[in-house]
Amino acid sequence: MGPKDRNEDLFYQIALTFIPGVGGSIGRALLAHFGTAKDIFKAPVKELVRINGITDKKAKAFKDPELFSKAEKELAFVASNNIHILLTGNEGYPSRLDNCSDAPLLLYYSGSANLNAKKIVSIVGTRKYTDYGMRLCEDLVEGLQSQEDILIISGLALGIDAIAHKKAVSLGIPTVGVMGNGLDTVYPASNKKLAKDMLQNGGLLSEFISGTIPERGNFPARNRVVAGMSDVTVVVESDISGGALITAHMASNYNREVAAFPGRVHDTKSSGCNEIIRTNLAAMITNADDLLDLMNWRGDKKKKVVQKQLMLALSVEEQKIVDLLQTKDSVHADELYHYTGFNSSQLAATLLQLEMQGVIKALPGKNYRIN
């Protein structure tokens, strides 16, 4: 049975996600070339293989009629369960995530939270947390309560994820759980009540169709969504090989801020946090105030900077950098390089001088902000 007219675009977008080996990057390339998902399926095999990453085998998969049966089934499930489908490039899709080249082509969303809130924080960590980690996580969420239009993201896993979600629910802070399975089930099952509570002031999000079980390979994909949706990823407690560190590295690769709480040097539960702090992948924080400073989310921060500048005689080069930094929470060195037109040594010297004067602060990932 073919798609209904009103759901035609949605139908073909869903069908596109069923093609083996066609993820966000290849899918975007196909959409950019053909215009619509429907036109992709209408295209001959010889035209499809011109797209980088599309082999003969993948191109022939577009002609499998079973794809349309699966898409019809998923549309029916979505309609009967009040689930929203968010398409890349469309209103409602998380805009921060949409800027990532490997972002999913579509997301399934159940909830009411604004996925494009002004401030989005992901909180991740170990499943086998300590009392120290639980206290840090709860205090962090509580310290963010005063922030307007803030959203807390995590992965709805046991441990730190669940603690962050529960604390947010108790304080009335919107919180969204990104899942590594379809929205027809909650994993782990022990989080069912928590998931239900989150729907009242938050939501559940997944790129996976109904019936998808929580296989190990799904979680790195889930983690990239957690990292890509957020302004900053905070690692509360993690060992050296924890999944939270994968999320932290993904966030850094997306040029997002990463922060971590330090722990005792011989505590394996904090070994991952200590390592990403030691290697400058993450900024060290000890409380919510540190995070607000890192993100320049204090309302009086820019006012203080202006007052400080009145007492400093900045050079033309220094002022040019400060002018740009005052318009944003943070700026990557590459953007400063293109904006100023300075050569690399001139830019490095000017940035160092501003740091020494206390005007700017260097952040992980070659980012800078007003101090």
Describe the structure.
The protein is of the alpha/beta class. The protein folds into three domains: 5-80, 5' to 3' exonuclease, C-terminal subdomain (DNA polymerase, domain 1), CATH 1.10.150; 110-295, Rossmann fold (3-Layer(aba) Sandwich), CATH 3.40.50.450; 301-370, Winged helix-like DNA-binding domain superfamily/Winged helix DNA-binding domain (Arc Repressor Mutant, subunit A), CATH 1.10.10. Helices cover 45% and strands 13% of the residues. α9 (160-171) links the parallel β4 and β5.
Topology readout:
Layout: H1 8-17, H2 24-34, H3 37-42, H4 45-48, H5 56-61, H6 66-80, E1 84-87, H7 95-98, E2 106-111, E3 119-124, H8 131-143, E4 150-154, H9 160-171, E5 175-178, H10 192-198, E6 202-206, H11 218-229, E7 232-235, H12 243-253, E8 257-260, H13 271-278, E9 283-284, H14 288-295, H15 301-310, H16 316-325, E10 331-332, H17 333-340, H18 344-356, E11 360-363, E12 367-370
Parallel strand pairs: 3-4, 3-7, 4-5, 5-6, 7-8, 8-9
Antiparallel strand pairs: 1-2, 2-6, 10-12, 11-12
Tally the structural domains.
3
**CATH architecture label of the largest domain:** 3-Layer(aba) Sandwich
Question: Helix-strand pattern, N to C?
Answer: HHHHHHEHEEHEHEHEHEHEHEHHHEHHEE
Strand content: 5-15%
Measured distance between first and last alpha carbons: 60 Å
Strand order of the largest sheet: 1-2-6-5-4-3-7-8-9
**Low-confidence stretches at least 5 residues in length (pLDDT < 50)?**
1-6, 300-311
Number of helices: 18
